[in-house]
Amino acid sequence: MADRPEELAGEAQWRSAGDRIQTLLDATSTGGAAARERAEQLVREVVDLYGAGLARVVSTIADQTDSGMLDRLVADDLVASLLLVHGLHPHDVHRRVGDALDQVRPYLGSHGGDVHLLDIVGETVRLEFAGSCQSCPSSAVTLELAVEDAIRAAAPEISSIELVTPDTTSAVIPADSLLAQLHSRGQPSGGAAWHPVPDLADLAPGEVGGFAVGGVVVLACRVGDELYAYRDHCPACDGSLAGAALHRRLAGGDPVLRCPRCRAHFDVVHAGAGLDDDAHHLDPIPLLLRDGVLSLAVPAEPMGASA
């Protein structure tokens, strides 16, 4: 897209606004307690002023016959985050969490998985993952990261996410309230960071490319209309996948990725599962459209690694 660089610049600008505001407030402390108090009061006055203006805009739109106008506004992440800060978002937490899960559901499906919203109790969301992703640790971590990011953005009042498995066991993921003080929501938890990667969209069907993103070499490929990304590491020979190519299965079906060194085969459409040895699987990396910008959540450590 021709406007993508400007779009990326705009996203980066507003996502980091909260951090810049906090830095400026901290700098005022050098002038003493009185200077800091005046600066904080100034920020509160400005926030309250814009909040009052937003309240009037929302009220005016709600009175119009076009009921879809408000939905179109809250579909924009920046507008939605500001409405959340001021308590003006028209949708309750159940609707927002449900919509967030719907947005990432196609990505979950690419890993052979799905997620079900069981309940929201207080500030805790209870979810159940389903599908083949349950048997793949790397895929499970990838999906949890994608789901957590979506819920954090849509419902900052959620403090934890409880993952319930069919055998009734569960694990709780802490979820900080990232938008409460207008902080950027650009960074997921777990030592990972989202990076815009618009160049990946230029991959042609059947093409495989290597990209350095956030200090990590990522292997990306396109199968039909879908893009998939993995850490550049073959678990079979412990080498790089540089030079790997997609090969069509003899019996038809989705193409598979073959390591150019050890000839191991991996199902890139289904979370990088090993086709020659079930113990070997690629490390998938979340690759999602975030606010219309293709982005990768690059982890600080391999997603399948254990402490």
Automatic annotation (TrEMBL):
Pfam families: NifU (PF01106). Residues 194-296 form the Rieske domain. Keywords: 2Fe-2S, Iron, Iron-sulfur, Metal-binding. PROSITE patterns: RIESKE. InterPro entries: FSCA_dom_sf, NIF_FeS_clus_asmbl_NifU_C, Rieske_2Fe-2S, Rieske_2Fe-2S_sf. GO terms for biological process: iron-sulfur cluster assembly. Coiled coil: none annotated. May be involved in the formation or repair of [Fe-S] clusters present in iron-sulfur proteins. PANTHER family: IRON-SULFUR CLUSTER SCAFFOLD PROTEIN NFU-RELATED. This is Rieske domain-containing protein.
